[in-house]
C-alpha cells in the first residue's frame, strides 16, 4: 500500500507542468506569488516583477508574442490571456498545452489564480493566496468605511506634457473596484468602457476631489521627481478644481496600478492613502 501511494505521488508530480511560459505580466506575478517562479521559463518583455524575472528568457509582448521563441523553450504549459492574434489557436495547432485566463475584474483575478493553481498542481496554494488577498482587501474596506467618500479620477493615459488625449478608468476597470474598496467613488463610473477617452471639459464639469494621474509615466524607470511635479503643475492651471484646492493631485507610476494580479492589495492600499491621508493604512 505504501509503495502504491509513493507511485501515485510520483506520477502526479511528473504530470505537473515543470516548464511554464507566461504571456502577460499579471500571469507572471500570479505564478511567482504561488511560489512557482522556478518553473517559469519564459516571460514577456514587459514582465518586471518580481525582480527575478529579469533573468528569464523573453518571448515578446502580449500583442506580439514570438511563437518561435515560445517553442524554443519547450514548455509543457503556456498560460495566456485572450489575445487579439488568436494565440491560443496558434499554440494548440503546434500541440502545446494552453491555459487561458482573464484579468478584467477582481473576480477574474481570483478565478485566474484558482485555475492556474489547479493547472500547475498547487490548488491549496491558490486557495490560500485568494483568501489572503480577500482578507487584505476587506481590512482596507473596513478601515475606510467610516471615512468620507472621495470623488476620484484615475488618468491612465494622455498626451505627454499636456491635458489632451485623456483616458481614464471607467466602470469596467478593476481599478474602479479597488477605488471603491479604498473609500473612493470614481467620477467616471458611468462610462461603460474600461478605459474611456474623456475631454478636459468633462473633467472640469465633474470636479473630482482627488486626481490620480499616471498619464505619461508608464515607464517607471524613466520617471523623475521633477517629472511628477510637472504633472501636478499641469492640473494646477485650474485652481478652481476641488482636487487642486485640496492639494490632492497625485502623480503616480509603477506596475502596481496596471498589472491586475496579487499586488492589487498594494494598489488598494495606495489608493486609500491618497484618498484619506489623515488615516493610517
Describe the structure.
The longest helix is centred in the middle third of the chain and has 22 residues, at 123-144. The chain has 281 residues and is of the alpha/beta class. Helix 5 runs antiparallel to helix 6 and helix 6 (123-144) runs parallel beside helix 11 (264-275). The chain has two domains: 2-136, Rossmann fold (3-Layer(aba) Sandwich); 149-275, Rossmann fold. Strands 5, 6, 7, 8 and 9 form a five-stranded mixed β-sheet that branches. It has helices at 2-15, 25-33, 67-72, 87-93, 106-119, 123-144, 174-181, 200-206, 225-236, 242-245, 264-275; strands spanning 20-22, 40-42, 77-81, 98-101, 150-157, 167-168, 184-186, 210-213, 249-251. The protein contains eleven helices and nine strands. It is globular and about 60 Å long.
The CATH superfamily of the largest domain is identified as Nitrogenase molybdenum iron protein domain
* Structural class estimated from helices and strands: alpha/beta
Radius of gyration computed on alpha carbons = 21 Å
- CATH class designation of the largest domain: Alpha Beta
User: How many domains make up the coordinates?
Assistant: 2
Proportion of β residues?
5-15%
- Order of helix and strand elements from N to C terminus: HEHEHEHEHHEEHEHEHHEH
Helical residue percent band? 40-55%
| Distance between the amino and carboxyl termini | 53 Å
Biggest beta sheet attributes: 5 strands, mixed
* Contiguous helical run count: 11
Low-pLDDT stretches are 2-14
- Quote the average pLDDT: 91
Q: Per the principal axes of the C-alpha atoms, what is the gross shape?
A: globular
Per CATH, which architecture of the largest domain?
3-Layer(aba) Sandwich
Number of E-type strands: 9
What is CATH's topology name of the largest domain? Answer: Rossmann fold
Amino acid at each position: 500500500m505504501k509503495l502504491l501511494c509513493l507511485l501515485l505521488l510520483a506520477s502526479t508530480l511528473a504530470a505537473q507542468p515543470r516548464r511554464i511560459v507566461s504571456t502577460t505580466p499579471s500571469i507572471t506575478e500570479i505564478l511567482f506569488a504561488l511560489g512557482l517562479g522556478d518553473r517559469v521559463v519564459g516571460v514577456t518583455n514587459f514582465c518586471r516583477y518580481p525582480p527575478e524575472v529579469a533573468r528569464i528568457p523573453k518571448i515578446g509582448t502580449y500583442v506580439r508574442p514570438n511563437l518561435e521563441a515560445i517553442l524554443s523553450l519547450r514548455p509543457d504549459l503556456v498560460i495566456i490571456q485572450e489575445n487579439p492574434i488568436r494565440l491560443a489557436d496558434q499554440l494548440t495547432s503546434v500541440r502545446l498545452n494552453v491555459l487561458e485566463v482573464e484579468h478584467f475584474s477582481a473576480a477574474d483575478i481570483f478565478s485566474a489564480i484558482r485555475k492556474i493553481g489547479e493547472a500547475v498542481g498547487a490548488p491549496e496554494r491558490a486557495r490560500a493566496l485568494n483568501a489572503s488577498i480577500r482578507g487584505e482587501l476587506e481590512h482596507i474596506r473596513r478601515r475606510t468605511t467610516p471615512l468620507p467618500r472621495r470623488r476620484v479620477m484615475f488618468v491612465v493615459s494622455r498626451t505627454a506634457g499636456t491635458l489632451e488625449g485623456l483616458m481614464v478608468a471607467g466602470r469596467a476597470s478593476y481599478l474602479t473596484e479597488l477605488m471603491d474598496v479604498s473609500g473612493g467613488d470614481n467620477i467616471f463610473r458611468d462610462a461603460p468602457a474600461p478605459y474611456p477617452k474623456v475631454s478636459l471639459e468633462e473633467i472640469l464639469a465633474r470636479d473630482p476631489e482627488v486626481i490620480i494621474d499616471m498619464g505619461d509615466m508608464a515607464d517607471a524607470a524613466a520617471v523623475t521627481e521633477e517629472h511628477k511635479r510637472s504633472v501636478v503643475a499641469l492640473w494646477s492651471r485650474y485652481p478652481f478644481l476641488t482636487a487642486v484646492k485640496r492639494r490632492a493631485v497625485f502623480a503616480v507610476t509603477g506596475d502596481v496600478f496596471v498589472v491586475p494580479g496579487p499586488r492589487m492589495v498594494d494598489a488598494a492600499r495606495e489608493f486609500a492613502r491618497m484618498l484619506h491621508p489623515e488615516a493610517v493604512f
